[in-house]
Amino acid sequence: MSEQRTELENLGEFGLIDHLTKKFKPSQASTITGIGDDAAVLSFSDEEVQLISTDMLIEGVHFNLMYTPLKHLGYKAVAVNVSDICAMNGIAEQITVSIAVSNRFPVEALEELYDGINVACKFYNIDLIGGDTSSSLSGLTISISVIGKAKKNAVTYRSGAKEHDLLVVTGDLGAAYVGLQVLEREKEVYNANPNIQPDLDGHDYIIERQLKPEARIDVVKFLKELEVQPTSMIDISDGLASEVLHICKSSKVGCHIYDEKLPIDGQTSMTAIEFNLDPNTCALNGGEDYELLFTIAQSDYDKIKGNPHMTVIGHITDEKSGRYYVDKNGSAIELTAQGWGHFKD
Ligand code: ADP
Ligand code: MG
């Protein structure tokens, strides 16, 4: 190691990944895509590809056990991995689960975690095929790898968006982030006075979106039925703005997205306002919705028009035109990713 010391926050999460992995170039004929998409794409046959992705959840960083039931955590850990396979337009089939756990946890707690994993495996039709178990000095870490498949000509990369394509999101946005604000508020109230019961009334939808997100395996199915082949796709884990920018960067294109088009549930908006947050900002920068963001050719528009699961939020432009968020008055603001910035604070 040299004397030089560079702080992680100087690079940020994505900068760090680029920095550490830039010297690694795939050499195997079977590696179609390595680092840089929602899942790696491997080819062992002419028609199908294998998809592989890994995600890690750390206590205190990704979840707080004060308000996260272990069963939900197990479910979510699987769902977020399946979501990365959906983002490739594929179907998840197997997972491996690795845990590091401190002696603070009794066996019963881990049984609950695995109950949640089991419910998710049944719901998503996935086999648990292995993993690893280790002790940890403090807290719980869960790392899941998922294996899936897709038809070779159906795989969607982040890099396929073309000028004039439409940008589409599934479901609604911002709910998981606003749900987290409610849970954090009730945690503070509880810490101040453990006799006060948490007040979660009227927030059931957004809390569920935070604690028990779903991977959109249904959307992968709908797209196939509608005969829509997205030109690019990504799942929304870090926030819409961040994901739109990933697609633009990988595809070397620009975009316009429109604030009035963002799909936001009524409960999300009302609760955001309660917290003095702008609902659109929550939709744009709040993470963990695990909806899909994709682009389609304009000629496919009629196939998704009026579909209750899909909303057109903007379109792709050429790279030189920049990446913009357009408000109701027509003023365009350059799109920046707030995301989570894991290495800040
Ligand atoms: P996602 O948000 O879809 O889970 P990430 O932003 O975590 O994707 O990762 C982006 C890409 O970088 C993926 O291809 C992932 O496999 C790769 N990647 C992330 N961390 C590392 C690492 N420490 N070493 C090698 N590749 C990594
Ligand atoms: Mg992803």
What Rg, in angstroms, do the CA atoms define? 20 Å
Question: What coarse outline follows from CA principal-axis ratios?
Answer: globular
- Total helical segments: 10
Structural class: alpha+beta
Helix content: 25-40%
Strand order of the largest sheet: 8-10-7-11-9-12-13
Helix and strand run: HEEEHEHEEEHHHEHEHHEHEEE
The low-pLDDT segments are none
Number of strands: 13
Percent range for β-strand residues: 15-25%
Labels describing this entry:
7-stranded mixed sheet, single chain, alpha+beta, 34% helix, binds magnesium ion, 6-stranded mixed sheet, binds adenosine-5'-diphosphate, 345 residues
Question: Could you characterize what this model shows?
Answer:
The protein is α+β, with helices and mostly antiparallel strands. 34% of the residues lie in helices and 25% in strands. Strand 12 (323-326) and strand 13 form a beta hairpin. It is globular and about 55 Å long. Bound molecules: adenosine-5'-diphosphate and magnesium ion (MG). The site of adenosine-5'-diphosphate has 9 residues, from helix 1. The site of adenosine-5'-diphosphate (ADP) has 9 residues, from helix 1.
Briefly summarize what is shown.
With 345 residues, the chain is of the alpha+beta class. It is built from ten helices and 13 strands. The protein has helices at 8-21, 70-86, 107-124, 175-192, 204-211, 217-225, 240-251, 266-274, 279-285, 301-304, and strands at 31-33, 40-43, 48-58, 91-101, 127-135, 140-151, 166-170, 232-235, 253-258, 292-296, 310-318, 323-326, 332-334.
